[in-house]
Amino acid sequence: MDNLDLPPKVLQALQKLEITTSITSVLEMSVPELVKTTKLSEHEVEMLKKAVSERVYTRPRFVTAYDFYLIRCKLSLGCPILDEYLSGGIRPEGITEIYGESACGKTQVCLQLCLMVQLPLKLGGLEGGAVYICTEDKFPAKRLEQMKPQFKQQYREFLRDTNVGDNIFVKHVVDVKGLIDILDNKLPVLMKRTKVKLLVIDSITALFRVEYSMDEMYERAQVLNRIGARLVQLSHKNNMPVVCVNQVAAVFDRPVRDTKCKIHDYVKPCLGKTWSSWVTVRIMLLRSTGQHLAERQLPKGESDNPERELVVIFSRTGDHSPLDKAMKACRYTVDASGVHGILVKDTDDKCCICGHD
After folding, report:
1. Is this entry keyworded DNA damage (predicted)?
2. Ranked by mean pLDDT, which of 14-28, 55-69, 106-120 comes out on top?
3. How many CB atoms lie within 10 A of CB 215?
4. How far apart are CA 352 and CA 357, in angstroms?
5. Are 100 and 138 in contact (CB under 8 A)?
6. Nearest CA to 95 among 339, 316, 323, 271?
7. Which residues, listed in sequence order, are joined to residue 330 by a DSSP beta bridge?
8. What's the CA gap between 95 and 180, in Å, rounded?
9. Secondary structure class of 258 (helix, strand, coil)
């Protein structure tokens, strides 16, 4: 605050503000709000916001060709079929949202990304660790232990004696203030000590489910904007994928379900348009319908491992076409070793080339 190039009157007014976390709170307040709170003129408030923005956001700099290459590198899901459908994997810049109903594999995908990020660039990794922020249940440590043996066996030449669990940093939060504290303070400190190349929040919805009432939607939108802006800033500054798990809500203003309607016509991601405006890529996971399973005539023994589907709803980067009737989903299954895409050619189904037929 002392480093801001501002008149003493403006600095004094700024010090009187109840800013408990960071100076960036000024940017989240509108000009009329600041005028009313600080008793400054509109011109002085504009001067204040400009000084804070120049302090917080660094100016663009030249990048090397190798830096540009790193920016274009995507994080692989560990499955060639899923990677091909996602045009290479998860983007290193921006927020990727994964949403869907219960038991469709959202956490499984996140765990697989936490393992894959530790691999070299040539294998689809980003040569770094992962931060996994839990907001609902405990971290699925047992599930991760199930996935580790197959993963280490598949990449034993590159991992050697590496304990992949040591590169996954877990934190549990129970409220919005805790999440903001991690993003603003604790995470930057961790990133100075170790190379973090993936941030997972599972889930972003839980923190807003009961904390805000219907009369507090304006405050809720402000907090969502603050968190979204901070996540985008962390992603772009560190060339780091940010994956947020979201839940679904039922859509009641639809006609009675018929065969022409799809599942995404009846459920929608939570948190509304305020949160959606910060999402770069939105991915929906869903369990395959009985009709799809009947058409494929699954062999005996596969009924306990039901198929699921992954659909890109939108991508603001142009990597994927908007969701329409012609767009097909990518089918996948989940087993003890992780998530595996299914290549469907006529009646022949072939799993991805990671040792699963």
Report:
1. yes
2. 106-120
3. 7
4. 8
5. no
6. 316
7. 310
8. 16
9. coil
Is pLDDT at 93 greater than 80 in this prediction? yes
Compute the half-sphere exposure of residue 3: CA atoms within 13 Å on the CB side of its CA: 6
Q: Does position 214 have pLDDT exceeding 60, yes or no?
A: yes
| Residue entry with tokens 């500054």 | 237
What was the pLDDT predicted at 32?
A: 83
Distance CA 40, CA 13 (A): 8
Residue type for position 108: Q
Answer left, alpha or beta for residue 248, where phi above 0 means left and psi between -120 and 50 means alpha.
beta
Which helix (DSSP H) or strand (DSSP E) does residue 61 occupy?
A: none
- Cα separation, 21 vs 348, in Å, equals 56
- For 115-195, strand residue ranges (E) read 129-134, 168-172
pLDDT per position as a tens digit, 39-92: 888 888 888 887 777 766 655 566 677 666 666 789 999 999 999 999 889 988
Helices (H), the chain: 8-16, 25-28, 31-38, 42-56, 65-72, 80-85, 106-116, 141-154, 156-159, 176-181, 187-193, 217-238, 272-276, 290-296
Please state whether the peptide bond connecting residue 203 to the residue before it is cis, i.e. omega within 30 degrees of 0. yes
Question: Which pTM was predicted?
Answer: 0.75
Question: 171 pLDDT band (50/70/90 cuts)?
Answer: very high
Confidence of residue 126 (pLDDT cuts 50, 70, 90): very high
| Nearest to 125, CA basis, from 224, 195, 178, 63 | 195
Two structure tokens written together for 339: 């998530």
d(CA 148, CA 150): 6
In the chain, the amino acid numbered 76 is S
Pairing of strands 196-202, 279-287: unpaired
Question: How far apart, in whole angstroms, are the C-alpha atoms of residue 105 and residue 285?
Answer: 7
Fill in the amino acid letter for 202.
Answer: D
More confident residue, 214 or 242: 242
Place of tokens 């580790």: 148
Q: Are 283 and 99 in contact (CB under 8 A)?
A: yes
pLDDT band at 297 (very low <50, low <70, confident <90, very high): very low
Residue-level pLDDT at 42: 83
Overall residue count recorded for the chain in this entry: 357
Q: What is the CA radius of gyration of the chain?
A: 23
